[in-house]
Amino acid sequence: MSSMGSTEETRRIVLDGVVVQARREGGQLVAPDGRRVGIDEAIHLPPVEPTKILCVHLNYRGRAAELKTAPPRAPNFFQKPLSCLNSHRGSVVRPRGCRFLNYEGEIAIVIGRRARNIRIVEAEDYIAGYTLANDFALHDFRDADRGAMLRVKGADTLGVVGPGLVRGWQPRDQVLRTRVNGRVVQEASIADMIFSMAYLVADLARTMTLLPGDLILSGTPANSRPLEPGDVVTVEADGLGVLENRIVEGETAISNECGWQPSASEKVLGVALGQGLRE
Predict the structure, then answer these.
(1) Who has the most CB within 10 Å: 91, 98, 115, 258?
(2) Res 3: pLDDT
(3) So where are the chain's domains?
(4) Residues of the chain with pLDDT under 70
(5) Which residue spans within the chain are E strands per DSSP?
(6) Which residues lie below 8 Å from residue 61, measured CB to CB, with a gap of 6+?
(7) Confidence at residue 2, expressed as pLDDT on a 0 to 100 scale
């Protein structure tokens, strides 16, 4: 099935105070009872309710080259907590006192049925569809996490997905773009991926059970850079729509009573500014 062929998009929205799964028809969203709302007027939620959010490091050749590191021989993954989930047009908070909140435009895989110990050639049968994601990263805490990515990727509001779940879309050579205030800052064909969508699903399912609604974020292209409060970030890909968010500054500073504090070491700057991975 072609990515430009028969597709169906659904979005989770709040309509008259109730969460509904609405079907997209052109510029409108249609609720199961027939009520309609314009896409621009709708209050969006994440398009699915996952039990886990799994993400792959370095899955674009261009990104690996930018960071001056060899492409990985097999995928490396990390997990974002469910509490970081955010949606289309949701505000993304850069905590007060932090400087290195980076955008990372991505395509997210949505699992459609229980998957465990499956082959790569079977993986597509377990995928419900795809959505867009922005895997925001708070690099001020790279020194704190020591590779675990918990605070870098898991802070509140940093798990943006949406606007909708698109069924029937097939990854080929579509272009993924990220814009900041209308300017293109990331642009790459998904053919530049090191590991395919099917490979990622099969690899994860070797050791864990993937459940309907689970999200797998498939990696970001080169040129992830820091943002400032007030910036508007969009992620788009042919057939998957446009995911938009605005950056806001947190109301309170990171507490210095305990724990690691935000830092700007060579390790932090290396990734935040695309200068290279540093241990």
Answers:
(1) 115
(2) 46
(3) 46-272
(4) 1-5, 279
(5) 8-15, 18-25, 28-30, 36-38, 43-44, 53-56, 77-80, 85-86, 91-96, 101-102, 105-111, 127-135, 137-138, 159-167, 175-180, 183-189, 215-217, 232-237, 241-253
(6) 71, 192, 194
(7) 39
Q: Give 140's strand partners.
A: none
**C-alpha angle 187-57-148 in degrees, rounded to nearest 5:** 140
The total number of residues written for the chain in this structure: 279
Gap between the Cα atoms of 145 and 168, Å rounded: 38
Dihedrals φ, ψ of 266, to 5°?
A: -60, -35
Q: What are phi and psi of 27, to 5 degrees?
A: -90, 10
Residue 122: is it exposed, middle or buried by C-beta count within 10 angstroms (0-12/13-18/19+)? middle
Query: What count of other Cβ atoms lies within 10 Å of the Cβ of residue 201?
Result: 25
Residue 146, pLDDT score: 76
Can you give the pLDDT at residue 1? Answer: 35
* CA–CA gap between residue 111 and residue 143 (Å, rounded): 33
Q: How many CB atoms lie within 10 A of CB 72?
A: 14
Tokens of 224: 């992830």
* CATH homologous superfamily of 46-272: Fumarylacetoacetase-like, C-terminal domain (3.90.850.10)
**Paired tokens of 126:** 């377990």
Q: Which residue has the tokens 């659904």?
A: 10
Per-residue pLDDT at 258: 92
What Å distances lie between residue 106 and 27, 38, 40, 130, 249, CA to CA? Answer: 24, 26, 22, 11, 23
Single-letter code of the amino acid located at 21 = Q
Nearest in space to 243 (alpha carbons), one of 178, 147, 157, 148: 178
The answer to whether 56 touches 68, Cβ cutoff 8 Å, is: no
- pTM above 0.85? yes
